[in-house]
Amino acid sequence: MGFEVLLKGNNMLRLLLGVWTALRISLVSVLISIVLGILIGSIMTLKNPVIKVITRGYLEFIRIMPQMVLLFIVYFGATKALGLNLPAEAASIIVFSLWGTAEMADLVRGALTGIPKIQYESSAALGLTTTQTYTYVIIPQVIRRLIPLSINLITRMIKTTSLIMMIGIVEVLKVGQQIIEANRKSSPNAAFGVYATVFLLYFAVCRPISLLSKRLEKKWEN
Amino acid sequence: MDTQVLISYLPRYVSAFFLTVRIGLIGIALAFLIGIFSAFCIHFKVYILSQVFKGYVELFRNTPLLVQLFFIYFGLPKLGLSISAELCGILGLGLLGGSYMSEAIRSGLEAVSKSQTESASALGMNRGQTFFYVILPEAFTLSVPAIVANVIFLLKETSVFSAISLMDLMFTAKDLIGLYYNTTESLFLLVSFYIVMLLPISIIGSILEKKVRYKMFGAN
Hints:
heterodimer; A: 222 residues; mainly alpha; MetI-like fold; 8 helices; 0% strand; elongated; B: 220 residues
């Protein structure tokens, strides 16, 4: 059924290295997204109308555009418009960070505004200062809400990075294609085995992470 | 940007737009059917079927659409299951969407509080009445935000179809850039058409969400 082709030479190893390429890009993007997302998400809770309009516009645009379109805009559009020659990997990290930051910022904003007003009032009634209110009452609750959601963002990021093959990065799907092409004569059914393996590899990577996120969410539910 | 170029490209984008919308809508309708069926099977713990659907939901929620499409379009024909690109797109979107819709509807069903069932039975309703008149309407309102988010997500995912050479918006843009190298115009039209497609849905969705929230919790 085409699985035997994976046992030839170092084909399986190449496939796993392809997974690593996708994972590396998504992990870098997630790290950038979390840092910038917390920053922008906190800024979004300010009541300044100018900041509100700018951040809302950014968020809506990024959320409406398919990630693939964003990838094309940055990889092909920016190259032409600004005349700079961006490597594909840098372009994809920029795009996924832009997207991840928007998603993360919205989560942070939701978590911050979701804290009931009573919490602030009770802290004030107990004589806590503003710094104390934030460090002992608000931030611990926000972090509890955010950790499962950020972990969930990691799986979404990994799934989204499968798109990078479309701008020519050699990741797991592309490696799979190469293996199939190279063994066209000797094992004509390689497409089934290789793509089934890629399918299961993604599942094996994403499933434990989303399970962890679900567990934590349940554990910290109040 | 060259207006002449924009005008000459427009017809190709319009037909690609309609193809994208058509496949998207059929795929989403299929996703709804699969999602409702699967959510009911899981919720009512139907023998064997609930386990099968649980596995299906996990499998499709944890893999990217691009990989699913490659498997369906290039992998399955090797087992003798050959389907056209368009059908493959619809099937892929339906299966991916079905797993997301199933989760949305199931969590809605689970979120209806137990006292509702108990009150309904105290009023003398039988199980069927309880489900159709009490549980289902409440569960549906609870899952509206998730369903709207899924519809937008699925319409965005259609951009992946270009990988199996369906002539959708993304494919058209890529094709035109390759042919004439008018990158700015091609990308501009691409972005505009996606905005035309998704902005109304996004706005309708947020209005719908507000209405639902108002019905459940009153003002604000």
